[in-house]
Amino acid sequence: MATEDVVRAAGARTGTGAPAGGDTPQGTDTGTRTRPRARARPRTRDLRQLITYALVGGSGVLLDLGAFLLLYNVAGLHEQVANVLSTSLGITNNFVLNALFTFGKRDRLLLRYLRFYAVGLTGIALTFVLLAVFSRGLGVDPNLVKAGSLPLVLGFQFALNRKWSFA
Q1: Could you tell me which residue, 159 or 143, shows the higher pLDDT?
Q2: pLDDT tens digits for 112-146?
Q3: pTM above 0.90, yes or no
Q4: In terms of Cα–Cα distance, which of 21, 20, 26, 35 is closest to 3?
Q5: How far apart are CA 98 and CA 53, in angstroms?
């Protein structure tokens, strides 16, 4: 059996791709090949989760807006009542889809939902503060502030939901 075959066999037994003793024989690059891949996997997973989270968020925004338009314009509800209901519907949609597809968590759903809803409220509060500072305080167009706040709020909520709601 060649030296590389011995190294591969020992690595397979330890699950590391490296020899059982941790030393890589001269002339092989087994140890250097596995380390970058091991680091790349969490980054790839993080990026996949962030993209899925953003897509789910987009579906929630569309649902929120559509529900608001129906509740306010068709059902004739007061705009604040329509906003609370439509926002809650969007947050609930996002929770279900994120639990299933983004984070793959199906345990402690009520606790996770309450945490997710609280994070949703922090996003609303963060946007409120940014609008107050940049629009009212500095005279920046509110549409620009809202659009500019989306990536910041998305990143903030993703981090909170990942570390708290779906930990």
Answers
A1: 159
A2: 999 999 999 998 889 889 989 998 899 999 888 88
A3: no
A4: 26
A5: 7
